[in-house]
Amino acid sequence: MRILLIEDDRKTSDYIAKGFSEAGHVCDVFGDGRDGLFQAQREAYDVIVVDRMLPGLDGLAIVRSLRAAKVGTSALFLTSVGGVDDRVEGLEAGSYACAGRQCG
What we know:
4 helices
């Protein structure tokens, strides 16, 4: 599986990318929202894992832009933002919303 991870916290992105790699997946990592959006529009991915709060462009704007451009790649928010309104906003943007312990 080919995965795009857009996460600005280096420790977190290294940990997640290592797990994906150990599971046999290819994972491209970008720490800036604009760069991540550009990459998502340029290359084909099986899934995009995106942080909500990013420099350059936030995760909601990335997913909204992808949906407006008719990019239908599955997207997953990985975030500490976990209020009901935040999850609804993520779903409305076109992603599966997942926050911390509520993911399992």
